[in-house]
Design brief:
Elements lengths: L1 H21 L1 E2 L2 H11 L1 H22 L4 E10 L5 E5 L9 E5 L4 E14 L1 H68 L5 H36 L7 E2 L22 H21 L5 E14 L11 E14 L7 H67 L5 H35 L9
Subcellular location: Cell outer membrane
Pfam families: OEP
Family: Belongs to the outer membrane factor (OMF) (TC 1.B.17) family.
Length: about 450
């Protein structure tokens, strides 16, 4: 029995440990890495990159020899007859009906085609390699966009977590006040209305706390979806506060080095190659062909038949095929003009994107500066509000402050902490944008 009790205790402890492990505490780095490994966007970008290798192989196949094997077997139950003048057979004035061909005919053939000069194929090979580079850069851009989205979602959860802690601190302070008033009420030194007012304040804080908890749970679910995690899995964020970095470099970023511009530039290369491929349709095409075959005919089934009624003969041929476009009704010219329009449209998009990236960089720098000032101001305000609250609590205990003044000081302290949390979130969002403008979002994973 003792052994069973010990085993039961150990099993219970084991289950408790596993339950604790199931609730993961995730840092920003871990959350981002999880998203890069599991989120659909990242996985799709990797598959597109892998698929680009197959596209290169597909285009490369056009420049390699094309070998084709064919075979046929024909049975002619009724041979067609042809009218032949009888003079050929020594019967003048008569027509002889003669059947041509054999009842059975079998053929096996092997043909080879090799492009010797085809500008479209050569241009396609260059385009395929550029496509691979495009998907490589696009995969990097997808990762950066995912990192930005996940980081913002993470900090929103963190900000709500801090807000929840602020409400809990205010609730603890008000509960302490309630206990003090309860003692005074029991001693006949306070009024019941004061106790009821504090009770109402506590109930309101409890309701507010529950609302924030609900919002917190929804934000955690949104974060789990953003990183591709099972919604039912419980996660927690580490118990730490936001930190500001006054040493951030607020330099102008080089927009040409941004991944967004690299993707567009690579897309421009693809459009240039598409234009060249269209022009290549006007070039002559030269290819080599060769075939080798074997033909069997007879009145008996020819395959696997070595009887005298089946005759076999081989055949082969080598040749060059030259195709020279002469007149296409202006089709190629129209396609080239369309390709030019696409290039000009992309050029406009590149310039507009550069302008947008520069604007985002300036806005991020301005937001960082303003957020730092606001954060520092709110921190001072929190310290001041805390000092006022503590002094008011002491004055209330000594009968030098009213209950209204005490509740107001506690609410002011909670508001100051809430304002600080909001300003810290704004700072972190601006910090992400500044890191993004410098092209260093990957540093959040390192």
């Amino acid at each position: 029995m003792k052994r069973l009790k010990v085993l039961s205790i150990l099993l219970t402890g084991f289950i408790s440990v596993n339950t604790l492990k199931a609730q993961e505490v995730l840092t920003l780095k871990q959350v981002i890495q999880y998203a890069l490994d599991n989120k659909k966007e990242a996985q799709t970008a990797k598959l597109d990159l892998e698929n680009s290798e197959y596209k290169i192989s597909e285009v490369r196949a056009g420049a390699l020899p094309q070998v084709t094997g064919t075979g046929s077997l024909t049975f002619n139950p009724m041979l067609q007859k042809v009218a032949i003048p009888g003079e050929l057979f020594g019967e003048p004035g008569k027509t002889v009906m003669a059947a041509f061909g054999q009842k059975w005919q079998s053929q096996a053939n092997l043909s080879v085609t090799q492009q010797l000069f085809n500008q479209s194929v050569f241009t396609g090979l260059k385009a395929a390699r550029t496509t691979r580079e495009f998907y490589q850069i696009n995969s990097q851009l997808t990762e950066e966009q995912l990192i930005e989205k996940v980081a913002n979602a993470y900090y929103e959860v963190f900000q709500t977590q801090l807000q929840l802690q602020t409400i809990q601190n205010n609730l603890d302070n008000t509960t302490k006040t309630q206990k003090v008033i309860k003692g005074l009420l029991d001693a006949g030194l306070s009024k019941k209305i004061d106790y009821d007012r504090v009770t109402v304040a506590i109930n309101n804080l409890e309701s507010q706390k529950q609302q924030v908890i609900n919002a917190w749970e929804l934000q955690k679910n949104a974060l789990k979806f953003a990183i591709g995690m099972d919604i039912k899995k419980d996660i927690q964020l580490p118990k730490e506060t936001f930190e500001t970095n006054s040493g951030l470099v607020l330099a102008d970023n080089d927009v040409d080095s941004r991944t967004e511009i690299k993707v567009l530039n690579k897309q421009n290369e693809l459009l240039e190659l598409n234009k060249k491929a269209t022009i290549a349709e006007l070039y002559p095409k030269l290819s080599f062909t060769g075939n080798l075959g074997y033909l069997g005919m007879g009145n008996a089934f020819p395959i696997f038949n070595k009887s005298e009624g089946v005759n076999w003969s081989g055949f082969s041929g080598l040749g060059l095929n030259l195709s020279v476009p002469i007149f296409r009704g202006g089709e190629t010219k129209a396609k080239v003009s369309q390709a030019d329009i696409e290039l000009r449209k992309l050029k406009v998009e590149i310039e507009d994107t550069k302008l947008a990236l520069s604007l985002a960089n300036e806005n991020a720098k301005a937001q960082i500066r303003n957020s730092l000032l606001t954060v520092n101001s709110n921190r001072e305000n929190v310290n001041l509000a805390k000092e006022v609250m503590e002094n008011t609590q002491n004055n209330f205990k000594n009968g030098l402050a009213t209950l209204t003044e005490l509740l107001d000081s506690e609410n002011a302290f909670a508001d100051a902490e809430s304002n600080l949390n909001i300003s810290l979130l704004n700072y972190k969002v601006a910090e992400i944008q500044l890191i993004k403008s410098a092209g260093n979002l990957k540093s959040l994973v390192k």
